[in-house]
Amino acid sequence: MGLGRFSTVLQARNREFLRDRMALSWNIVLPVLIVIGFAFAFTSDNKDIFKVGVHGQEDRNGGFLDTEHIQFIPVSDIPAAVTKVERHQLDMLMDLAEERYWINGGSAKGYVLEKLLAASELKLARQTVSGEEIRYVDWLIPGVLGMNIMFSSLFGVGYVIVRYRKNGVLKRLKATPLSAFEFLSAQVASRLWMITLVTILVYAGTNLMVGFRMNGSYVTLLLVLLAGTLSMISLGLIIAARLVNEEAANGLLNLISWPMMLLSGVWFSLEGSPEVVQHFALLLPLTHITTAARAVMIDGAGVLDIGLHLLVLMLMTVIFMTIGARSFRWE
Q1: Which of 60, 220, 251, 283 has its CA at a distance of 20 to 30 angstroms from the CA of residue 46?
Q2: Measured between alpha carbons, how far is 4 from 234 in angstroms, rounded to an integer?
Q3: Helix, strand, or coil here: 303?
Q4: Interval 295-327: pLDDT, tens
């Protein structure tokens, strides 16, 4: 690999991106607007639905377990579910096998559910927990940052390379000593540092305005950012490998990005959704980015705690990069 050729292409791509003021501004402004909008839109404590975790056999013959406007979510891990009650992610936890239930003493919804339970046929022993509520914006920000990484990576690499091919830029580069590996490596490196810098700026700026919960290490969060960005850029290379038509590339990129955005837990939790949806979500890199980032920021998880997510992201990077590099063509 010629470092001189690699450096030249890298600088050219960096300058092209920095001179495109509209694209640069949109990468920064869009996630900021989303975060601020949701921070103000979801400040109310009035929610329309209760969430109750249920451990053990459910006997739905009427009574409390058939109450409308309550979502009953089966749980298998009691300690993990108790933690969700502490953080107001669950309004109540019921252990039917041991005939007990948990509520958060500071939860207004837990108080209402307890009154409904007391008036029902179920007789369970009361357990209380306490904990500071996780704001929706605290839960949302990892997904928003991951979504911004996804769009910047897929369209910033996939769409751009297809445009190069259509405009004949790649055909001219083919006549130079530049190899495909050097060209693709420069594209990946350019996009990686750009997205990392923009994401850090967006996080720092919105954090000053909103004040996010951060219980983990910023170094660990940076590792998630780098691993996730590499996997997304590599996925974009697959789209860019052979396509010539920009419209086709745009359609395929949207076909990939929109289902990923909806099924990766960016906007809402997948708890209570069908198992097939939850299993499918594990095949999407955005799911691992969002889950790992939330674990670091909200749960204070370390590298070992999110090691599986990082491993999956790196494995995806290797697979996507190999497919993209082997199928790449100049014309």
Answers
A1: 60
A2: 23
A3: coil
A4: 999 888 899 999 999 999 999 999 998 888 888
